[in-house]
Amino acid sequence: MTDPQLNRPSSAYVGDTTQPAGSTYGASEPKTLSVVALVLGLASIFIGGSILVPIAGIVVGVMARKREPAGRTMALWGIWLSVAMLALWALLWIVAGGLILAAIGLAASGA
Known about the structure:
Elements: E1 2-3, E2 8-9, H1 32-46, H2 52-67, H3 72-109
């Protein structure tokens, strides 16, 4: 069946392939916060002794999990990397402080 005015098949039998105005095919949800959380998590591995970078990674990662469901995996990786590095650096600072206090105690005792 053809449309006599346009000399083309009627849309009643052929799927309408037109795209609604204002939308695009393959448009994905924004993942900016998730990417930032992941980058901060990775950066916290390489920036030694910084407390601010892992804390920022955790905060941005939690915000990303709430706002960007499409980037949940990246946000979780950013959170876990930041938490792991924050815990590691805290443990290293505690051990270093204990060693310093032990050295002071040994020096004070005269041994």
